[in-house]
Amino acid sequence: MRRAHHPETGEITLMGVMAALSDPIRVGLVRVLADGQERGWGELRAPVAKSTLSHHLKVLRDAGLTRTRQEGTRCFVVLRREELQARYPGLLPAVLAAAEDEDVGHQVAVSPSLQESSL
Known about the structure:
- The protein is of the alpha+beta class.
- It is 47% helix and 15% strand.
- It has a single domain (10-117), classed as Arc Repressor Mutant, subunit A, CATH 1.10.10.
- The chain has helices at residues 14-20, 24-33, 50-63, 81-87, 91-102, 112-117, and strands at residues 39-40, 44-45, 66-71, 74-79, 109-110.
- It comes from [Actinomadura] parvosata subsp. kistnae.
- One of its GO terms (molecular function) is DNA-binding transcription factor activity.
- Residues 6-99 form the HTH arsR-type domain.
């Protein structure tokens, strides 16, 4: 796997962020990652094929919403909360509140067995 590109905070654009958040699966991924935990890609559960999940994670990374780290053959992802807050103050909390209120992305979750072991 080649090294993933992560836009610098100043390179993150509002249109890129909004486009990335235009899909309910990606909103669900952001909701799951909003707890601040770094998650292995294998921990994330969504009603899509693995290749489609990988595509959604790439869209979020390219837009600057997440940071991906590779360790051997495993990939880990974390929400770039501080960078997003610095670039667009209040945007992420507003998106998360609206997604919660409208139940957008509810079908995305963390694997229960993996979630329990991290407690």
